[in-house]
Amino acid sequence: MSSRYKLTYFYFRAKGENIRQILTLAGVEFEDVRVHWDKWQQIKNEQPFGQLPLKRLAGENEWEAAQIDALSDQFEDFFQEIRPFYKTYNKLIEGNLNDVYDKIVEPARDKHLPIFSKYLAESSSGFLVGSKLSWIDTQLADHMYTFTEFRPDYARRYPQIEAPFFKFFLLSNMVHYKLVYFPAKGLAETPRQLFALAGVDYEDVRIPKEEWPQHKPNAPFGTAPWLEVDGKKLAQSRAINRYLGKKFGYAGKDDFESAQIDAWGDQFSDYIVDIRTYLPVAAGMAEGDKEKLYKEVVEPAREKFFPLVVKRLSENEAGFLVGDKLSWADLFFANHLEYFVTGGFNSSDYLDKYPELLAYQKRIHNIPEIKKWIEKRPQTAL
Ligand SMILES: N[C@@H](CCC(=O)N[C@@H](CS)C(=O)NCC(=O)O)C(=O)O
Q1: Between the CA atoms of 308, 314, 315 and 321, what dihedral angle is there, to the nearest 10 degrees?
Q2: Is the separation of the CB atoms in 207 and 224 below 8 Å?
Q3: H-run or E-run covering 178
Q4: Which CDD domains match (predicted)?
């Protein structure tokens, strides 16, 4: 007979979320009762029933269980220090949330996260303790989720935490992603690489050209790609890039960086518009003089746009278009460069005048997760 669990908590995530996630990971059905703050007094004396099925997530042996306990106590100290943030957020006390964040959360973060970071740096599994996910990982991950939503750069100083935190969301399997496009790299390649970087599972649907007419009516704007997030559809490749970039941490550390990344994405798209007569001819989908179009359309547009990119990259020591981290705009541009130099267009001289851009493209595509994806992705002509 299966047990029946009922979890009673408030309508926000905070401490209840960790238990919700543990139950979900354990594959246990539970009643997720979310109490409104003003109803709390009426049910305050109710007892929760049943025990949590923690065994699977509480360490492989006594030593690991003790380490998990130690980290959990440490986390509790951290939580107590930043409590005013939650209280202000939920309007239980008055105050300016940004001030509370600056004065309380940031110093507490810089006191406590190095401890978790050290554990992760020393771990070869990507989990805080041992070789498996434990409930201290889910606790930390939910904390990171809350504060990264509030300040996207929250975890930037702690890359050891930021990377496994996204992997955790893969494990918790919270969102079902489906990306629909053709059997081609084209406009879907950047979103695919964002999934590869984040280590997040998705359905990579590739519709053969002859089947497209029956799928076209399902496309939100009549074109591909589109992304489905738990069945909700999002069209337009740049909107998809921005969405996944933000979700996975490749869209800038603040609003200004995000806007600069958008600007590069838009500028690059203007370049594609400038060379649009060449593309279908080079792809063998339209009649035309490929060599003539390359000379008369591609080369002048390239001489207008590429020097801007070269200048930008020479100004940014980090070697990315914006800030000190890879963004979706870097992927978007690097994919185009790779396609022209090595892909079906046979324009291997495309970057002869721009060795810096060739080096940049290779550097981006050598990032281990991208490299791995490129090695295993389906081989397609376009
Ligand atoms: N601006 C759109 C363009 C989408 C687009 O034109 N997609 C082409 C393939 S690259 C397509 O769906 N063609 C089939 C059709 O229009 O029926 C985006 O970036 O998503």
Answers
A1: 60
A2: yes
A3: strand 177-181
A4: GST_C_Sigma_like, GST_N_Sigma_like
Average pLDDT over residues 197-212: 90
- Residues 26 and 2: beta-carbon distance below 8 Å: no
The residue contributing the CA closest to ligand 1 atom 15 is 223
Closest residue (by CA) to atom 1 of ligand 1?
236
CATH code, 257-376: 1.20.1050.10
Compute, in angstroms, the gap from residue 224 CA to the centroid of ligand 1.
5
Higher pLDDT residue, 62 or 14? 62
**Mean pLDDT value across the chain:** 85
- Give the integer Cα–Cα distance in Å for 161 and 357: 31
Topology given in CATH for the domain delimited by 60-172: Glutathione S-transferase Yfyf (Class Pi); Chain A, domain 2 (1.20.1050)
Q: Is 186 touching ligand 1 by the criterion CB < 6 Å?
A: yes
Task: Give the residue, by CA position, lying nearest to ligand 1 atom 11.
Answer: 223
Q: Which two tokens stand for residue 306?
A: 């590429």
Amino acid symbol at 181: Y
Q: Does a cis peptide bond (omega within 30 degrees of 0) precede residue 225?
A: yes
User: CA-CA distance, 225 to 283, in Å (whole number)?
Assistant: 18
Backbone phi, psi, residue 20, to 5°: -60, -40
Dihedral sign for Cα atoms in the order 252, 253, 258, 261:
negative
Amino acid letter for position 54:
L
Domain 177-247 fold is Glutaredoxin (3.40.30)
Report the alpha-carbon distance of residue 140 to residue 158 in Å, rounded: 13
pLDDT at 149 over 90: no
Token representation of residue 153: 């750069």
pTM exceeds 0.90 for this model: no
Report the pLDDT value the prediction gives residue 160, as an integer from 0 to 100.
Answer: 79
